[in-house]
UniProtKB/TrEMBL annotation:
Keywords: ATP-binding, Cell membrane, Membrane, Nucleotide-binding, Transport. Residues 2-249 form the ABC transporter domain. It comes from the Bacteria. This is ABC transporter ATP-binding protein.
Amino acid sequence: MLETRDLSVRFGGHVAVDGVSCAFAPGTLTAIVGPNGAGKTTYFNLISGQLKASSGQVLLGGRDLSGLPASTRTRAGLGRAFQLTNLFPGLSVLENVRLAVQATHDGRHRRGLNLWSVWSDHRQLTERAAAIVDSVALAARRDAPVSSLPHGDQRKLEVALLMALEPQVYMFDEPTAGMSHDEAPVILELIRKLKADRAKTILLVEHKMDVVRELADRIIVLTNGQLVADGAPAEVIASPVVQQAYLGVRESAAGEPA
Ligand SMILES: Nc1ncnc2c1ncn2[C@@H]1O[C@H](COP(=O)(O)OP(=O)(O)OP(=O)(O)O)[C@@H](O)[C@H]1O
């Protein structure tokens, strides 16, 4: 169970996330929605540790992660899509994913130097990396240097790297942003598959309400950094606070919030 307790951050005089208390259960995909500037990405940054909270706590499985750096939170099971700037741009797609698989594996099974185990691990890690690359529909590009990938493929690679970490909690921030109509379904299908694993907790910041409707088990709404609605999708979308503060007339007209 992931939980935030009274989580807040202040930038000068502006409270970007304001006392958000919320628990996210395994097996649930929660969409976090709200108008531009509502604090959604900032809330993600506070959970993943990219940003230090002014007050409040982040707990995972009862362990208090508040104050710990992002890398420790990742090891604890919080997985957030990598920024591609963290990658080795000259290495291929497969090599980058293999390094992520290896980092996860080494963290869990570090053992002494034994050439047989190094070789056999290498083979297994490469197979696992290749399976992940396949699952994000990047098999045709597996040997291409990351620096040469078009935008849509970079987004797929971000998801591949996240999968390589095998986290307990998957955090997606607009995972299909900038993707073409043809490419987005690959990512959505992957998220659907992750959701089928009832042990995982998935958080999704998403502006596209058709995606939210399709994937979310629950929606929480942030406005001005505060949690203003929380519940089943149909109920939250229909609630006056959301209709008024967020969706308005545009959502029903255009399928996307202002
Ligand atoms: N590092 C920062 N320094 C100062 N202000 C910040 C910082 N990060 C975010 N903010 C402010 O905090 C508020 C919340 O921003 P945030 O990006 O979290 O909103 P959001 O809901 O994710 O918006 P969007 O949907 O447009 O991505 C905004 O007013 C933003 O300008």
